[in-house]
Amino acid sequence: METEAKDAKVDLEKRLKELGHLLEDSRNKVKVLEAYSKSQKESWNKKELIFQSLAEFQFGALQELRLSSECIKREILKAQKSYSEEFNCLGLKFKKLSVESENYHLVIAENRKLFNELQDLKGNIRVYCRVRPLLSGQAEKRTTIEHIGENGELVVGNPSKQGKDGNRLFRFNKVYGPNATQGEVFSDTQPLIRCVLDGYNVCIFAYGQTGSGKTYTMTGPNGATEEEWGVNYRALNDLFNISQNRSSSFMYEVGVQIIQYSQTFVSLDLHTLGIKTVSQENGLAVPDASMYPVRSTSDVIELMNIGLNNRAVSATALNERSSRSHSVVSIHVRGKDLHTGTTSQGNLHLVDLAGSERVDRSEVTGDRLREAQHINKSLSALGDVIFALAQKSSHVPYRNSKLTQLLQTSLGGQAKTLMFVQLNPDVSSYSETVSTLKFAERVSGVELGAARSSKEGNIKELMEQVASLKDTISKKDGEIEQLQLLKDLKMHILSVDDFKQQSRFLKRSKYSGGDINQDAEISEYGDGDREDRLSDFSDGCVSLGTEPDILTDEGTKPLEKSEKNKVLSRSIRKLGETTSSVSRSLPRTPSIRKTAATNSISVKPPRRWQ
Ligand SMILES: Nc1ncnc2c1ncn2[C@@H]1O[C@H](COP(=O)(O)OP(=O)(O)OP(=O)(O)O)[C@@H](O)[C@H]1O
Questions:
Q1: Is CB count within 10 Å lower at the N or C end of the chain?
Q2: Known binding site for ATP: residues?
Q3: Residue ranges under compositional bias (Polar residues) (predicted)?
Q4: Radius of gyration of the chain (CA)
């Protein structure tokens, strides 16, 4: 038992020791845990502080946000208010605009008419003279041109006579010196292009000795840049640009015809002249006389280039690239007014004539000589045709020729014609220069007789026309004022209608215990006053669009129909007087007639042209 007790004691001591170790371990663990929890606590405290400051910061930011959102709300309300005010204002302006736009088309039509009249006043044949510069090979030579005036004067000096005795003065509508650019030359032609779109025929010729710059003026130099473009390209560009700008009110169809009068035609008699194209003669792929629909300048240029490349050209001693044929580019424009449905047809003919030449100087022989003689013959025939037509002679030579027919349309009163007279300033060309100028002087002299008399001799007639134009403008102003008044009346009547309704409502509310002051306020606008104002308007005006009731002194009851009609007819009569006096005072203009069979429009020229 003692042994057992000893063993048990040893066991117990052993266990005690183990327990002591365990206790020690636990104490250590407790210490570690305490340290850990302390550090955790510290970190939590730190985090708490951070959160707190963050929360404070966010709270502050929130406050700021709230303030700014209130500010924004206020701003939005303000903006909304100002928007609605602006919308109201815009609405009013829009109303005004819509009224004005109704008159816009009338004003545009009037403007077009006045523009064409202005062109008429300038005469239906204009002759512009262009002196080309001396070319590099001619730089040493002397010029025959002594003076170019601002108003179309040109003085040419005879190189074989000394001093002023050899000088000769010519007068044209305009003379361009050697430094004139292609753009400057076109600027005076430009107004005529608009006429084509307004249904007129316009014919632009270039005439002059070989090598004097006809092709340069009409087309430009070979491979021309946009700056160097001649009248043809610029005219087409303008034509398409203007038609594009008018596309909201007009629809245009443009067709092009290119006719090359080849050199052989002159050997046929001009009597039997048919349109012969190079293609028909040489089997080349060039446009014939049929019409090609086109949509843009480049379409036309493409066609013209094909024509140009195949134009009969050859070198003479005077021009290394001389045109041996007449070239006519005809642009046919059919327009339709989208508002009225009326149609019009205008044509633009661009004619580059073959150069005239003195056979001995151009050193041509054989076939070329025959050709030159034919060209000269055809140009002198052209002169005869122009004079016969311009002088309204009953005997027009070469009546059946296409060129004569073209000229007939151009000079016969329905068209505006422009002739570029080209000059080579070189002294050796003096005699050709003088004969060209004499030809041009005859052309401008014959037909411009009328135009010039309106410019110089008949200043009185011109003054009268200007005065009547001014009169028309002031009448138009009056009309606009009337229209404005009508608009005001309409607005006024609408507000009176509102007022009527309001008044009825308030009267009703008076009996049902409405505000007496309000009624007193209403009666201040008394019916008599309203009637006065209305009768002021109804005397001078007629209603636009929907017809408002015309009020009697009861204010609410419309006038009897007959009475109303009386007021209206009085107003219409008054307005009619204004418009008829406007139309009476309008100067003579081409009248547009609708032909029943074709439903197309023919433009009757003013009498001065016939
Ligand atoms: N205003 C100008 N500025 C510069 N060069 C010009 C001008 N006018 C003509 N020329 C030049 O003069 C030469 C002859 O011009 P162009 O071929 O146009 O004459 P043309 O009258 O058409 O001749 P033709 O009747 O023989 O065809 C060309 O080399 C052309 O480039």
A1: N
A2: 208-215
A3: 577-588
A4: 46
